Amino acid sequence: MTDLQELEEALLSSRDEFIGQHNRNVERAQEQFGKRRVAAKKIDLPQQQPDKAPCKPSKEASGAEAYKTGHVIRLAVRKKKMSLLDEIFEYRSPKISELEARLDAERAARAAGYPVIGYVHSIEKM
After folding, report:
1. Residue-range definition of the domain harbouring residue 11
2. Where is the segment annotated Disordered (predicted)?
């Protein structure tokens, strides 16, 4: 048995011990205080899945390569009109047009709680 398999078995057994102890504590609390007064719930043990070959990630979920076109827009934003410091808000837009990407970034900044947009810091193509 390799070290990796031993580690995996140790992790699984400690997880099972923790879940068992948690469930026993929940049962004791429910007996002592009643089911309605105990907010904690029992944890179900995960089902053992048969060993499968690792699956490949789909093309849609390829992470950084998800956007092949678009722009990265950085805006200088403020929470208040008279704020001394500007914060940089970065937004990745899939739009091809710089103007549309900038408008999307401004909408996203306002939705994120930055009502004042000072200026466009930078626009880069992806």
Report:
1. 3-37
2. 41-63
